[in-house]
Specification:
The chain has one domain. The relative contact order is 0.21. The protein is built from 3 helices and no strands.
């Protein structure tokens, strides 16, 4: 998997896991799905940071995500 794609999917999963975690917390349920999504997101982000030779600077992340999304439409 491309490191840019792993970073983008990891960030999207992390954002999507937050409502699931909050919903489970408010309802008093165990946050199983949210926790699985958060762990997968963390794994993808860490993999992307380790596998990319130069790493990613914080200010590069939006450009990387836009470039990855635009690749889908080419």
């Amino acid at each position: 998997m491309d490191t840019d794609l792993a970073l983008t999917v990891g960030i999207v999963l992390a954002v999507l896991s937050v409502p699931s975690l909050l919903s489970a917390w408010v309802d008093g349920r165990a946050p199983r799905m949210g926790a699985i999504m958060a762990i997968a997101a963390l794994g993808l982000i860490v993999t992307a940071l380790i596998e990319n030779p130069g790493g990613y600077a914080f200010n590069q992340v939006p450009a990387v995500m836009i470039k990855t999304i635009l690749r889908l439409f080419d």
